[in-house]
Amino acid sequence: MIKRLLAGLLAVAAVLTAPAPALAAPPPGLTGLEEWIDDHVAAAMAEEGIPGAAVTVIAGGEQIINKGYGLADVEKGIPVDPDRSRFLVGSQAKLFTAQAALQLVHEGKLDLDTDVNEYLSTFQIEDTYPGQPITLRHLLTYTAGFDEDHMVGMLAHQEPLAEGLAEYQPARVRPPGSGVVYNNYGIALAGHLVEIASGMPYADYVEQHVFRPLGMNDSDARCGGKGDTVAHLGDGTPTEATCGYMIPGGTGPTSTPADMGRYMLAQLTRDPRLGPGIAAEMQRQQHTEHPGLRGIGFVFEHIQHNGHPLLFKGGEMPGMNSYMLFVPELDLGINVVSNGDGKGGEGIDGIELVEALVDTYLPAKAPAPRTPIHADVDQYTGWYQAGRTSRFSMYKVKALWREPVHVTANGDGSIRTTGLSGGPKDWDQVEPGLFAERGGWGLIAFPEPGQLAIDGSTNVFDRIGVVDLPQLHLGMLGLGAATGLLAVARR
User: Fold this and answer.
1) Which of 2, 128, 211, 364 is buried most, with the most CB atoms less than 10 Å from its CB?
2) CATH 3.40.710.10 fits 1-365, yes or no
3) Domain boundaries, the chain
4) Is 261 a residue whose pLDDT tops 80?
5) What 8-state DSSP symbol labels residue 135?
6) Which of 54, 81, 78 is nearest to 322 (CA)?
7) Do the beta carbons of residue 70 and residue 51 sit within 8 Å?
8) Phi/psi of residue 201, nearest 5 degrees
9) Beta strand pairing call for 301-305 and 308-317
C-alpha cells in the first residue's frame, strides 16, 4: 500500500487522472489559474502525504476547471476521476439541508420563526428557557443554544433520524439567538423538520428536490453513499465512512467534484432551480453578534482575507476534507476535496489555497484607517473559552487541550489577546465594545458582558474563571496520575 501511495504522490504534479469535459476558458483576470492550482495542489499533497484530491472552479458563470489528482483508492490503485470519484462531503451537506428547509418555507409548510415543538410529534425539545423557543431560523444559523453533546450518538449509532434526535438530545446551554456556536444537532433537527413537512425521508427529499433539478446524479444523501468512497487517515490507513443519525449535518453523504461544481454554479448564478430566491437567502447575512462584524447566512459563513469578502462552507470527516469558497470580487467559486487527513489532519487546506489565490489575483488592500477611542477596557479582560466546549457531556474533556483566549489591558486603552490564531495581537477600540487589529484586518467584539465574538467565526467565546482553566485541570490530572503511579511503585 505504501509503495502505491508513494507512486501516486510522485506522479501527482503531472497526472490528471481523467480527461476533463469541455470547460470554458478562464476570464482574462484569471489567466494562468489552472497551472497555479496544479502547483499548489501538487505541493500540498506531497508535503502532507495525501493520496488523492480534486479541485473544481466556477468563474464567469461557467465551470472552468474540474481536475483530479492522485489516487481515489490507494490499495486498488484507482486514480481520482473528478466526474466519477465520490468524496464524503461532510458538513457541506448542511447546505443541502438549509436549501431543503427553505424550499418548504416558501411552500408554506415550514416557518422560520415558529417554535420547532409545534412541528414535532414523537418528541419535544426541552423548554429550558420558557418563552424563548427554538426556531428553524436558529437551527440554520447555529444560534439554537445546544450543548456540544453529540459524539456518542453520531459515531456509534445508525438509527432513524427522529429516534436518534430524541435519544441524544443535548442540553440547552444558552438562550436561542444569543450566540453563534457551530452545532450538528441543530442542523440534524432541521433535517427532521424537512421530513415532517414533506412526508418523505430526508435522503429521498434531497435526491428529488436538491440533486435531481441540478443534474447531480452521482450524489447521494444516504449514509456512506453508494459504498465506493475510500477515505484515508493521516498515516494513509483506509477508513470507512462514519455515520449516524446526524446525516443532514454531514455524517455520510457523498458527491463527486463535478456534482459539487454544479451546486456551486447554481449558487453563484442564483439559479431558480434551487428554489425562488433561496440562493440569495442562504448567502445573505442572517445573524451577527455585533453590527461591526461579519456573521453567518443560512449555513454559509461570511469570512474575509485582507479585506476581501469570502463565503465559506467546509466539511470534515475522518479521512476526508472539503472546502467550498466563493470570492465575489472575482465572481469565482472553488471547491477543494481530498481523501486523506494528511499530517495536519485537515487534508488540503482550501482556505489557505483561496487566500493565496486572492493574494495572487486581487490587488492588495490596506486596512481602512480607524480612530481609536480611549476608554476603560478592564471590563473585557479575562479568560474566554470557546462556546462549542461542552458543559455537561464527556465531550468536555476536549477543552483540556484547547488553549483559552486571554485578554489583557495594555494600559493605553487597547487590549492584547493570546490564544487566537496568528499568535498574540494588539487591538484598538474603535467603537464601544468593537476592537480592530492593530496593523491588520481582524475585528473582535464584546457584544454582551462575558462574551467575545470574532469576525466571521461560528463560535462565540464565554468568559471563564481561573478554576475553569484547562491548564489547571491538566496539572491536577498529571498530579493525580503521578501520585497513583508512585503509590503503585511503593507496593
Assistant:
1) 211
2) yes
3) 1-365, 378-472
4) yes
5) B
6) 54
7) yes
8) -60, 150
9) antiparallel
